[in-house]
Amino acid sequence: MALPSIAPYALPTEDELPPARVPWTIDPGRAALLVHDMERHFVDAFPQGAEPIRTAVAHIATLTAAARAAGTPVIYCAQPSGQTPAQRGLQLEWWGPGVGDDPARAAVIDELTPLPGDVTLTKWRYSAFQRTRLAELLAERGRDQLVVTGIYAHIGCLMTAADAFQRDIQAFLVADAVADFSPEEHRQALRWAAGRCAVVLSTRRAAAQLGDPGRRPDAAETAPPSLAGAPTGS
To answer: What's the pTM value of the predicted model, to 2 decimals?
Structure first.
């Protein structure tokens, strides 16, 4: 039931990414950036100082900096320490007690520490939308795009992207700013997302789109009716 020991592997390169089925691009006035499960407990399952986590962390840092500079909300979701069996639910049978009782293990790693103005949500299930205020927070801020980074690609990141799609929120999965148990599961997550619910793109492209609002269509013309009239803000 414990996390697997993860062997080093190379992150996918831009020319390996599955093609997009839809022409979505990130609009910093419509998007929010999600940093998913980058707690010490999960990050320590990777070989430290090696791929894929070394570059994934650096890429997430690049994207959080770009988002903050663009006025795009940065949202963290992280599991708490000391979860009860009732709080763990079925995850207890699949993964054990989770983070455990040590608050230090539940903290986001130092390299990605949330800054003032960022939002941190307590996460309870695979999808960051489940039992949180993520959907309400996005609606309150007039955001109908979610850029997903973090771990693990084929579990929480993929489930969050699929959940966003089912809520009419455009999902973007950043292929080299997520990491997984293995290269096979990482690439499987990218293929599934690109074929069914999200645009899969590189950190380079995501950062460029966050930093160049002139490349996106006007949000008022493309946002769905449920969010088009919502207030904007960071």
So the answer is: 0.88
